[in-house]
Design goal:
Order of helices and strands: EEEEEEHHHEHEEEHEEEEHHEEHEHEH
Number of domains: 2
Radius of gyration: 21 Å
Number of strands: 18
Shape: globular
CATH superfamily of the largest domain: ATPase, nucleotide binding domain
CATH topology of the largest domain: Nucleotidyltransferase, domain 5
């Protein structure tokens, strides 16, 4: 690679709810332009249309022998694929990464083919699947093609989910370590849509004995309870749409907006209490000895208030951009390795 060739460096967190990205264009004498963005982890298969021309604004992606809609375009499709299974990430991870490349190419005014061949990428796998699936995912991402565009990632690193949060906490934006925390005992909760990854750090090293993953314990629990409430109102909605209702705190029925703020506040409080009980039950010994409890991921926003009441005195940290903490740490890893 030529020295002056622009390199896009990307930390990517492919969650079961959203894909979160922290990226920068590296090259020339300009300061790195850090861009944070996300889009729904949504993929829909394109089938023959009854009426042609109605969805011309939607972008179709050719992958393998099929066509797909991605992100927001996929949310309204009746052919949207379920996203709860790790096999979904294994199969469609390349597509979602390509969409992230497209966004970066637009933002940095680069040809998509340039990004597809110059990008450095660090991404994560859920803790429970890391050892089993790491090499398989690396093989799938080594080289692939989407809509005739060949992707050959120049540098690929796969980490365990939660490691990004640890790196984001330990290192500043210039990848300088905060030495007072090096070698410390830390407990990290990465609250995603489907899973919660628990990373226990003892004397600065990840502990496989105490680290764990709680499947089905993410904010999908709030969505399940919200789904029950919506059905009582006569609303049958898909999972990704329910997630949007949760974020926006309102729904629409026959054109009439329904304010769900009070309902969602109650469900969120119940969820935070549930999670607190789970953590106290499973990790009480770890909590007693750890220096800091770090709660991040997209679900952190839903438990922050309750956890701040439960854990006082600076013991708890919820990062400002909690949902980007994994991706931010992955980006710092690439930057730190690149800069030695």
């Amino acid at each position: 690679m030529m020295i002056n060739t622009p390199v896009v460096r990307m930390g990517i967190d492919i969650g079961f709810g959203d894909v979160k990205v922290v990226s920068a264009k590296i090259g020339g004498n300009k300061k790195a332009d850090i861009e944070k963005f996300k889009f729904p982890t949504a993929v829909a298969r394109v089938k023959n249309k009854a009426i042609a021309g109605l969805d011309d604004a939607q972008v179709e992606y050719v992958f393998g022998n099929s066509k797909y809609l991605l992100g927001n375009d996929a949310l309204g499709s009746i052919n949207i694929l379920p996203t709860r299974d790790i096999d979904f990430i294994m199969e469609f991870g390349p597509l979602l990464i390509f969409k992230a490349f497209e966004h970066a190419a637009r933002h940095y005014h680069l040809p998509i083919k340039s990004v597809c061949t110059s990008a450095e990428v660090c991404l994560g796998l859920p803790l429970a699947y890391y050892k089993e699936k790491k090499n398989e995912l690396a093989g799938r991402l080594a080289s692939f093609e989407v809509s005739g565009c060949r992707v050959d990632i120049s540098r690929l690193v796969i980490q365990a989910q939660g490691q990004g949060i640890l790196l984001d906490f330990l290192f500043d934006d210039h990848c300088r370590p905060d030495r007072k925390w090096l070698g410390s005992d830390l407990l990290i909760l990465d609250i995603g849509f489907n899973t919660i990854d628990i990373l226990c750090v003892q004397k600065g090293r990840s502990s496989s004995e105490w680290s764990n993953m709680l499947e089905g314990a993410g904010i999908c629990r709030i969505c399940r309870d919200l789904d029950i409430e919506l059905k009582r109102m006569g609303l049958e909605l898909g999972e990704q749409t329910i997630k949007n209702v949760l974020v926006e705190r309102r729904a629409t029925k026959y054109g009439k907006p329904i304010d769900l703020s009070a309902t969602i506040a109650r469900l969120t409080s119940d969820y935070a209490d549930f999670l607190h009980r789970q953590i106290q039950s499973k990790l009480s010994d770890v909590l007693k000895t750890t220096r800091k409890l770090i709660v991040a991921g997209g679900g952190a926003y839903y438990v922050a208030d309750t956890f701040k009441r439960k854990y006082s005195g600076g013991f708890l940290l919820v990062p400002v951009d909690a949902e980007y903490s994994n991706a931010g740490g992955f980006y710092k890893y690439l930057k730190g390795v690149k800069n030695g």
